[in-house]
Amino acid sequence: MPELQPLAQVPFDHSLHGDSIGLDCNHCHGGAHFQGHAYMPSKKDCMDCHRLPLTEKPGIEKLDSLLALSGEFPWNHKKVLPEHVVFHHGLHYAAGVQCSDCHRPLGGADYRGGLAKGKPYSMQMCVDCHARKTFKDKDFKPAAVYCGACHR
User: Closest Cα to residue 40, out of 72, 2, 83?
Assistant: First the structure.
């Protein structure tokens, strides 16, 4: 089991960054709108906003001290799809898919990516969406349903 990085001790609340101050997912997760991967933020990304002491916020002292101790990429990221599966965030975003369509609601300090509406991702979820069995109310562009589109 990998050792927890210092920032794993600080609960991260997506709603404080998104809903509260209006940051788009791509602001912290670069590439989410145009590349294959939605990357985790670097220490510099966090410090761009948190370089000033925000002492009126609870836990900010702990965040500041842990950021000072952390490496350049303080967030652990565990790939949740098998190696043979190809997923391109940018293609999905271009087709009209929003981050919250696949990731459960982002509010709360307990949110951790890698879950689709609270359940582990499955091939059936993807196939159902590509075959337009889910999200019928959305106007997504047509998606490939042949195996080679997602499997290598």
Answer: 72
User: 103: buried, middle or exposed (CB in 10 Å: 19+, 13-18, 0-12)?
Assistant: buried
Pick 126 or 119 by higher pLDDT.
Answer: 126
- Based on the number of CB atoms within 10 Å of its own CB, is 1 exposed (0-12), middle (13-18) or buried (19 or more)? exposed
Structure confidence by residue, pLDDT tens digits, 77-87: 777 788 899 99
**What six digits make up the tokens of 120?**
């582990």
* Residues of the domain holding 137: 89-149
Same-domain pairing of 19 and 48: yes
Whether 1 maps to a domain, the answer reads: no
Tokens at 84, concatenated: 């043979």
> Does the residue 82 lie in any domain?
no
Q: Angle at Cα 99 formed by Cα 88 and Cα 41, nearest 5°?
A: 80
What is the pTM (predicted TM-score) of this model? 0.76
The sign of the dihedral angle between the CA atoms of 45, 48, 53, 57 is negative
SS3 label, residue 116: strand
